[in-house]
């Protein structure tokens, strides 16, 4: 079987809700990273077999196959297709997985994978304004429980015994690590500045420097009066996009390109849809089995910080080295633009692997409805 390699990975800065990126249509924001890939690699967009694009809230500005309109907004030839994938928060991670699988199977030779979400323009949950997505059969199976990610996070905290101080300490640490990463220029090579009204946004703007557990202690719980989850230890509502160029080793050589990493293994898994956010635990176990690697073989982990209990429960169950978990901070500090987050995590993962010469990296995302993706990539030295 052929291999799949990542040639380049880019992302926009992550904009805070109603911030600098709020005025940009999702297709145009997507076009920024598509254009950057072409500029950085010199690849002729006419040779791209497909653009596989993640997006969660496919309504309004993000409806009608945003992946296709991203291609057109970028000015690419009309014969280049685009498809939009929705696996909830893991949508663009699934886009990367699906693109790699198609390359390995010989269906594609050169493909772009990534995703977008403009949550300022297409609010969270706006696609559920009418109707019931679960259906009576699902509700009957779970005794009429109304699925809610925030309540799921509360249940995880209760099950693993995480108190408010532990969660707030983790959240404050996310901000501190993200601030250090920005100051050290870790993101500079893969973040594409976005110009808005004559001003360039170059860094993630949701970061709150100086955040501490003490300052977070004053925030009210969001989902239960006596709960431990609040706005400060949950991911931020954000805008952003990211894209990766994927091909084979042979095709990269023909094009004069030097790949960054090889797609090593991927896995998806389901979990209890009530707690909903524990899927990264079995997904990680599954991808490690499939890869033939152990948790100790992995040099860095990106576990999406949907809520602070998610990576903490993952850490407790996997036994991973806590120093290797989210060393650049995460979505609590810089944001979680749903459909773009999986590809954004991959750009972060690759940046760390290259900077620290780490052979293997693993990323995993919890997803609404109780599913999760896990992906392992191998640095090409």
TrEMBL record:
InterPro entries: Thiolase (IPR002155), Thiolase-like (IPR016039), Thiolase_C (IPR020617), Thiolase_CS (IPR020613), Thiolase_N (IPR020616). Transmembrane segments: none annotated. Residues 258-378 form the Thiolase C-terminal domain. The lineage of its organism: Bacteria, Bacillati, Actinomycetota, Actinomycetes, Pseudonocardiales. Residues 5-249 form the Thiolase N-terminal domain. Keywords: Acyltransferase, Transferase. The active site is at residues 89, 336, 366. PANTHER family: ACETYL-COA C-ACYLTRANSFERASE, BLR7806 PROTEIN. Pfam families: Thiolase_C, Thiolase_N. GO terms for molecular function: acetyl-CoA C-acyltransferase activity. Belongs to the thiolase-like superfamily. Thiolase family. CDD domains: thiolase. This is Acetyl-CoA acetyltransferase. It comes from the Bacteria. The keyword Signal does not apply.
